[in-house]
Amino acid sequence: MLQIGDQFDHFQIRAHLAQGGMSDIYRAYDLLTGQEVVLKIPNRASIGDPAQYERFQRELEVMRTLDHPAIQKGVDSGQFNATPYLVTRLINGESMRDFVQRSAPMPADAALRLVRKIADGLAHCHDHGIIHRDIKPENILITPDGEPIILDFGLALTKSAYRVTYANLSGAAGTPDYMAPEQIEGHRGDVRTDVYALGTMLFELLAGHVPFEGENQMVVMSLHLQGTVPRLDREVPGVTPQLAALVARAMQRDPDRRTPDLPSFIQDLEHPEAVDLAILERVEAAPRALPFWRSQAFVSGLLALVVLLVIVILAFGLQALHK
Length: 323
Ligand SMILES: Nc1ncnc2c1ncn2[C@@H]1O[C@H](COP(=O)(O)OP(=O)(O)OP(=O)(O)O)[C@@H](O)[C@H]1O
Ligand SMILES: [Mg+2]
What we know:
Elements (H helix, E strand, L loop, with lengths): L6 E2 L2 E9 L3 E8 L4 E8 L8 H15 L8 E7 L2 E7 L4 E2 H8 L4 H20 L12 E3 L5 E3 L15 H4 L11 H4 L6 H17 L9 H10 L5 H4 L5 H10 L11 H9 L7 H4 L14 H27 L1
Antiparallel strand pairs: 1-2, 2-3, 3-4, 4-6, 5-6, 7-8, 8-9
Bound molecules: adenosine-5'-triphosphate and magnesium ion (MG).
């Protein structure tokens, strides 16, 4: 890890901002331009990974494709002493994680306003064929004026890199709290994957907690796969059934039943009264049954059979020995 005052290429390290899944994030002074920037450098776990340089290049490329006030801007990427790095513009802001901790549950109008701004940024990504796939409060900064900025395109899906599935990177993936069921199942995901994450964040802003909580990540994942979103209007005073339906629609387990894209989600945000309330009554179809060879009865039966066989073989063996 770099120390404050260290020089790294043409940057002087000023502060360690965060430790991410694969990288350390520093505030640094660019000696060439005289500007403060953010440096992302692989952490110990991924420092020798030859793919990291390409990942940063891709992340920069994604940011350069986009131009929106709610999207982090990239500056440069490079390599110094065989260590790849990514440079982004410094944002004066607070992590949305801290903001949520302090402000949620929050009044519906404020939550909707904030989510609308994030949705605008995401719609811009989708318009450019980019799916973020890691939307969560840790990857959003809130400026002192209350403007959200989406960061971390490390998992983003672009047309040119469509093979990067979540499964490939799951070792580095953080919390499953905002992960869509199809991502948990290892699929690539599409615009609806971001809709799901945004719906989950809206739930959290309104309720003060995420919809699916559990002792560990496995429990949380299985709830995303099999659980039904709690009805917000029954839990949180001031949340209308329409708003609860909006969230439930964005969080449908089956992508085909979910709010189909960001423009539709934004339409729902603008006109919650038009969202079909039937979604609140509809209990989603039971999750797919396990194949019979993974059912408990089959496994127990198989075990019993094996034990029986061993006993028979032993008995025969003993008998043969005594002869
Ligand atoms: N431009 C920035 N300005 C201020 N703070 C930033 C900036 N970029 C990142 N940060 C801080 O660093 C944290 C981690 O950044 P980011 O999410 O980009 O990296 P990461 O999670 O480590 O990514 P990866 O998992 O791909 O390694 C953010 O949550 C934020 O607090
Ligand atoms: Mg991150």
